[in-house]
Amino acid sequence: MSDQLDERLVKVLGDRTAKALEKGLGLRTVGDLMRHYPRRYAERGELTNFASLNEGEMVTVVADVSKVVVRPLRNRKGSMLEVILTDGSGFLSLTFFNQAWRERDLTPGRRGLFAGRVTLFRGKRQLTHPDYEMLDGSILESNDPQAEQERVSEFAAALLPVYSATAKLPSWRIAQCVRTVLDNLKEVTDPLPAQIVEKYGYQSLVDALRSIHLPKSHAEAALAKERLTFEEAFTLQVLLAERRSKLRSLVAIPRLVRSGGLLEAFDAKLPFDLTRGQREVSAEIEIDLCANHPMHRLLQGEVGSGKTVVALRAMLAVIDAGGQCALLAPTEVLAQQHFRVITSMLGDLALKGMFGAATSATKIVLLTGSANASQRRSALLDIASGEAGIAIGTHALLSEKVEFRDLGLVVIDEQHRFGVEQRDVLRAKANLPPHLLVMTATPIPRTVAMTIFGDLDVSTLRELPLGRVPITTHVVAAQERPAFVERAWARIVEEVRAGRQAYIVTPRIGGEESEVEDLSEASADDLADEIDQAPQEMRARAKAILDIAPTLISGPLSSVRVGILHGRLPSDLKDQVMQEFSTGLLDILIATTVIEVGVDVANATAMVIVDAEYFGVSQLHQLRGRVGRGSHPGLCLLITESAPGSSARERLDAVASTLDGFELSRVDLEQRREGDVLGKAQSGAHSQLRLLRVLRDEKLIEIAKVEAVQIVEGPGIDAFPALARAIAEIAAKEQSDYLEKV
Asked: Residue 202 needs a FRET pair 20 to 30 A away by CA distance; which of 2, 411, 438, 626 works?
């Protein structure tokens, strides 16, 4: 069955307009345009006579066209259409740029309704690009004042949709396109099953689309928005319920925990006791590993909560049961850090085939894109033969050349950096579906986990290991108190003099190449909203490591040993710098966000983040988690030039006020979109969230999840063709996004 929503816009709007919508906003079909919902609604304002017009007010007037003039623009191409209106007692000017075609409607003698904001130009009152409607001739000819007054009142009270627009596609032009499409839109197939529409008293899809684009009242718009928001929540929950159902139907090799093996030997040599949370989560994972269907679990926890130990215990249990494990990390720095930490924690248990190895030892290999040919061949051979119980790597692990003898567990660190399909590529390397454990140090509120990670069981570590000390965070206002910046540099030198180490973090690398390589794209977009500049322009204002490092090294840090680390360095040099800092050969590390995750130097107690306003809340929380990981208190100084009361300063104040990552994640979500915060967590899912907000719409999501589960576990989505097609489109979008990334 054909659906009008699938029609290409070129058939309805013509080639020129359709190309503009596709190029400017990515809208290709009628459905794309209909799902480009208004951001807000403007009101035309009270009906006003000319004598009462005040600058800045939104007004509606009834007037006659007195004169029309079209003149070319002086200093650029194009023309200006000026229309002079009169109400019998005065005059008002209407101005339209490059819209001479409106002269056909706005002919002298015609009466109409005109609405817009009053401005002054050279002492004359005018409306620029006003909304208008010419009064029906039949109303005028009937000489019925009441009919005209009713039409005037209806026009003045109507809401004007305001759309996300571009310079070449202003909101009013998008509104025109929407009206044209709605005039031709008949019944369309609805992904919401009829019983759900009836149960909750929702409008039909076509009525909801009309009501959200052309509402007669705010109440009508709200009802349409609720219906369309529920549709988003429901289709996403059906997709996730389908995934859960398919996972439960898969057969996996149970990895039974046994005594006398690596896990037991590792536990015996641990120099500390596991926290209660670590023990409880480990028990959940062990139960999952013993099942004959694959584990599919998300492990989230605060920075430093001990996720690595929990993941390592799971890997050792799988090795004891005869399987192999893969640990996928998003960056080489993090992969190398994992390799060093896990190798160190295991000690002689990681020396299989080497002198001094324990009886039950295994082998750990590292595979990254920068590995030389000899290292790569050796790692691939150990993985294929089964000699390597644990393979740690970056995207290099996804290569077709990587073959496992018996892949039993996949561990993915920093889950938000990867898409669903990247998990699946690695899992496909197993003979039978392997167990899956994904980790994130970005705390996720329950409703976000339910919405974005709904196909995973969630385990949470909240408590920090015994002995961990709190981190004190202060905002350093550079413009208000410049002396405090100099004090910040002196403060970290004091830490070094006391035998400890420190980090200095900058937003970008600098130099001629890749000016914005390390800056968080989401945080730059936040700032773009705030100061109304293009992200690239703002990023260029942020301090760069290549500029600030020489100044610091020759100035306030001249008496200490300083290293520099950023993403443009060769891999071997990056590893060397990290090794020198980890072993204490360097006192201070000036770095970009390459140290955001996974870097663990217990002696590092202080951090200065330069131009902190260029980072997001979660990113700042991650960064400061690099200090205070030993027995000494941590200190984090956020240097900023943002003004008091700005949204950027509010973000920094929030970070300084609490160490609770879950509380900060809510702040982050309230200021930003879910997709921005979670990155590639579900590559296609967040692109579907046009109206849905996981914090605001918590109850709606819970209802949608219940209904989705009943559909999937009951008749199944094949019983609802329109729903099945909507789910297939989301899945196809995910796959398309993934192919564009790889």
From this structure: 2
State the architecture of 471-658 in CATH terms. Answer: 3-Layer(aba) Sandwich (3.40)
Contact 148, 27 (CB under 8 A): no
CA–CA dist 589, 599 (Å, integer): 12
Low-confidence ranges of the chain (pLDDT < 70): 1-2, 44-48, 136-158, 167, 415-423, 443-454, 464-468, 512-541, 597-598, 671-688, 733-742
Cα(295)–Cα(473) distance, rounded to whole angstroms? 38
Whether the CB-CB separation of 647 and 617 falls below 8 Å is answered with: no
Q: How far is CA 53 from CA 119, 124, 419, in A?
A: 10, 11, 55
pLDDT of residue 434: 92
Per CATH, the homologous superfamily of domain 262-461 is P-loop containing nucleotide triphosphate hydrolases (3.40.50.300)
Q: What is the pLDDT of residues 512-529, one digit of tens each?
A: 544 433 333 233 333 333
How crowded is residue 82: how many other Cβ atoms within 10 Å of its Cβ? Answer: 14
Fold exhibited by the domain 45-157 = OB fold (Dihydrolipoamide Acetyltransferase, E2P) (2.40.50)
- In terms of Cβ atoms closer than 10 Å to its own Cβ (0-12, 13-18, 19+), residue 310 is buried
Q: How far, in Å, CA of 438 to CA of 464, rounded?
A: 20
> pLDDT value at position 146?
63
In angstroms, the Cα distances linking 244 to 50, 455, 457, 687 are: 64, 5, 9, 21
Coil/strand/helix, residue 531: helix
* Half-sphere exposure (Cβ direction) of 75: Cα atoms closer than 13 Å: 0
Residue at 471: amino acid letter:
I
